[in-house]
Amino acid sequence: MTSPSVPQKSSRPVAVFDLDGTLADSAHRQRFLERTPRDWDAFFAAAPQDPPLAEGVALAMESARECDVVYLTGRPERCRRDTVAWLAAQGLPEGPVWMRRDDDRRPARRTKPEVLRRLARDREIRTLVDDDELVCDEAERAGFTVVRARWATASATLKNAQEREGRT
Length: 168
Fold this sequence. Notes:
Layout: E1 14-17, H1 40-45, H2 54-63, E2 68-76, H3 80-89, E3 97-100, H4 108-120, E4 125-130, H5 133-141, E5 146-148, H6 156-165
Parallel strand pairs: 1-2, 1-4, 2-3, 4-5
Helix pairs in contact: 4-5
């Protein structure tokens, strides 16, 4: 995961939010993963058209009252510009965005807890909000408080791609 170039020191706790399936509804682009071979370029190119997920957005706004918001996504670094623009267009709180290196294919259940531990060296992590059950399980095992984002329709295709191909 690539670390953002934003100062990390603050006395406020941190609320960490996933994007796809938590803040962004990626259901409209699942079709690109149902093909063989999967069309990852088209999948990520369609991300700017993701509708926001009201429950996730409301929770991020509420969390920003007491916490600094950090975004932790499995999207590759090459999607940074579109991702930051999407967050701003939704009126979401500003915050650092941690993204996967373009060549990093490790499962999110490995990469995200790694970033959480890194953040926790200097900051209190109040909560992680994520829709990936395996990420949530690993984060809880590592001692983090987790909110499981279950407000979007789960996609077996995306879950399989996340675990087997480490793409998001």
